[in-house]
Fold each of these.
Amino acid sequence: MKRRAFSVKRDANEPDIVAALEKVGATVRRMNWADLLVGFRGVNYVIEVKTEKGKLTDDQIVNFPAWRGQITIVRSVQGALWTIGAIK
């Protein structure tokens, strides 16, 4: 199966989310097919950042289900920190 190329458009809230994740000690790497690969307390997370009204692109709708792991969509700093278990 040929992997499609994804655009690298970043959402406006991504820098704040990345900064908050790094502040709690997470390792964050930006990717192209999903926004972030986050390592925290020995666990890896694939995170797609969207603004409050942001929607998945057509490419994401088609290709994300092929990932045999979990991809979490986050819309806020709190959502990202909750996803990795840094807050309850």
Amino acid sequence: MSFLHENFLLTTELARTLYHQSAAPEPILDYHCHLPPKDIAQNRRFKNLFEAWLEGDHYKWRAMRANGVPEAHITGPMDPWEKFHCWAKTVPHTLRNPLYHWTHLELRRYFGIETLLNEHSARRIWDEANEKLQSPELSTQGILKKFQVRAVCTTDDPVDSLEYHKSLVDQNIATRVFPAYRPDKAFAVDNPAAFNAWIAKLEQTSGLDCAKFEGFLAALDHRHAFFHSFGCRLSDHGLEAMYNGPCSEVQAAMIYDAARAGRPASPAHVQAFGYCLMLHLGRFDHQRGWTKQLHLGAIRNNNLYLMDQLGPDTGSDSIGDFPQARALSAYLGTLAQEERLPKTILYNVNPADNYVFASMAGNFQGGGIPGKLQFGSGWWFLDQLEGMRWQINALSNNGLLSRFVGMITDSRSFLSYPRHEYFRRLLCGMLGEDVAEGALPHDLEMLSNLVRDVCFRNARNYFGLALPPE
């Protein structure tokens, strides 16, 4: 049987029918990613396969380091071909890592290249892909059109001017591009230098005085409204674990004043301040009908040498083992008691928390909103076949798979859209296996509707984004 054949992961006839007739035709709503809006607004054309594939992909960087590639050939000054050649030599060593599947799916879906990538085929693939990258079909906007991406939600700091989002509104391209509000730097009261530098930008962009805590909250709300005016309907938080409160407004103001005066907050005060601020941000989301995304459980910047040399998001993050349930319950419960709990997606990066998060979501459903609380897709280290299967099973056993808002790329690369195909094939394969075992009825209409809903329609209905007519 050929590698990555047309029925890859589709082991039953029903799975093949579900995928080819129901899943594959559905468009994509990529509601969480790290694509640079500048690249979309300027309709960037990549000069070569390094720029398109390796420039910011820390998944590949980690594999290359594990294969003994010197850092100069990964993130350093070596020329693009040399870096790509090092990646090509690494690829055969990634067998059974999802990178092996992703790499060859991407070569096929973007460039029509079915040759296996290795050091011997590298030059031929490099030349062929680089030639095809000059086609308008493989510009950034061309890629979004090619993969039927109806909408992209980028990840943006509240102090961002959103100038490139404005440019995209003016261009009126087929794919809608929306910002998502990610205020992680607003919590850094333990690092007054960084915190106050960021506050200065917040004051500049909001036009409001942040000398006091009340002004700080007003400025965050002002930016929240500004993002809303650009179609933003999602916020996002990357936390080790939910902050552990409670904290009064008076105490939060005292912690804020101390940080503004250059005095770093203690670990206990970081938790208290964070909890109070998260409540306010949750209320903002509820007020404007947004969805809150909570990305929980990663331990970041483990390699301090790499952090010093390269900065964050360069491949030295991993799964953490933080207690999650009690603080998360308290946070969601407080907002629910106030009747100001927004739609919320819970993502975990530690598979040990799958059933914690899936069952936690069930505590706070209601309000007439199908799937108001979501157990989010397999994220980061879990967006591979085994991790996605675990997530689907935990969700199915504790909630309603039929209301799931589906997959995200969570990627910095425009060449990552086959990850949606990967997920869709797995989903259809699992459903086909269940029917073959007698665990689900062979009801094609019911199963087809579930597949279409999870692939696109649930996300379209859930987020309330201003999408173009179908």
Amino acid sequence: MKIEEALRELPVGPQAKRLRRLLPAIEAKLAEGVPHSEVLALLNRSGFALKEGTYKMYLYRYRKQQGGSGRLGSRKNEGVTSRPNDGPPATPDARRPQTFDYDPRGIPDLLK
């Protein structure tokens, strides 16, 4: 038996199956602004024994599967649009702040 076949035959734990069914509802609540800590606390009160890292990994994998970035904070800037790129500056010096002439010897009139 090949390792790929053996891996496919491994049973998925009931916790993973139950959580996978809940992930769309969890995503909807997160989009409404419910903190991750409250979602995790509710899951643990409801019979899950999830650590924060495990919860984040399940959520990360779900988001990757859905075609998202997988990042937990990826919805924060959802409505923000960036300005169109005006292109590179005309000259390399256009990026530098305006400078002034400086004489390291100081201003002799101030020392009088």
Amino acid sequence: MTVQSLKFLVQGSAESPYEVKFTLNGENLNAFCTCPAGQKGLHCKHRLSILAGESGSVISGNQDDILIVKSWLPGTGVEVAIHNMEQAEFDFTVAKGKLSRAKKELAKALLHN
């Protein structure tokens, strides 16, 4: 089994750029970022932006490699996890709207009773 790896330098909020490394080993896709969140194993926007095909923060001159990394995504656990996160974000947005409407209804009911 061939292990493939690609690295990117991305400009984040810090003065020095972060390094984002993607490794594909069979169906296992791994990504590491040197940003504070990435070093702690937390949600990292730098990894996700590259997986989404966004090149705006990449400063290493290998923007074409983003398409390669994106092509590694289908069929991986990372693809499933991204889908689940996006669904949860959508559900959260819907719930926030319902809560806002319920609070307005409560405010009206308190004034009219």
